Sequence to fold (92 residues):
Amino acid sequence: MVDDGIATGGTIRAALQALRKKEPAKLVLAVPVAPRDVLASLSSECDEVVCLATPEPFYAVGAHYSDFTQTNDEEVKRLLLASANREPELSY
Fold:
């Protein structure tokens, strides 16, 4: 599971719990920035946590990006449609 940043952890906790029900071989949480205490509480929901920065004090996810523009619903729909119509890349 990859997230652009974690603040309170509520949403990502729900996502991790839903994914765990699918019984993956390994569940890894990867995030660029999050509060240290929240990561600690999420560690029981996954097998591994990868986080690049745990600043103290933690103010907001967007404070750690030069551009944290929100993605609107139309852009998400367009990207999902493009992804669904794309041929998978083969690598050998």
